[in-house]
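Notes from hallway chat w/ T.B., transcribed later so I don't forget. T.B. wanted the structure written out for a chain they're using in a teaching module, and asked if we could keep both sequence and structure tokens in one place. Agreed to drop them here.
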Amino acid sequence: SSESDDYHSAPHIQQYHSQANEDRLYRLTSNLQDTTRNLKDLDRMLDDYTSLGQSKKSAIDRIRGDLDRTQDDIRYEHHRGHIIDRDYESDSENYSSPSKSQHPRHRSAVRFADDMNRELHGIHQSVRDISSEQMKLEESFNKEMDRRERLESDTRRSLQDLNSTLKGVSGLDPLSARVEKRLQAIQSEIRAERQVLDRDRNGDFNTLSSELRNAIHSA
């Protein structure tokens, strides 16, 4: 009879729905595992951003310290040069004709000028080395940023797939909302960290470049 057919078909319908739910839960579990790994990668990414910013700041501080010492050397050498030139001119005014006492001072001034030229040449080379290190640091930073952006894009796609699966399973909408909220929070943290790093990088490098140019001009 019809009632008998309905009675016997009910278990098959229940079994079908049970299998469908098991398949959905399996896919959900797999996606959750992938998402967990990606979220951990994103958390590590934020740590890497912070570490990179600290390393960059330390390198710039070290370069700026070298530059400060270089500028001090330049000012010191210029000051010494002015004193010797002044003393030599004073001696020249005190004597109407060259005397033997003048020759040692003149030779000393010439030797000092040669020494100062060699030292200034070394200072120029040091400044060029610092500028080259700055360029390498900026190149490394840009490569790191590109790698982070690729990982962020891959993670976003994975979480979007997860959200699609969550929305297809009845009663799991709150979980989907929590995952989406977590994703948005992480993305906001990444954007904020990137803006801070970009601002610090541009400000520090521009300031350092200006100081380098001033040091070269002073020399």
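Follow-up for T.B.: The chain has a mean pLDDT of 63. Might be a good example for the class.
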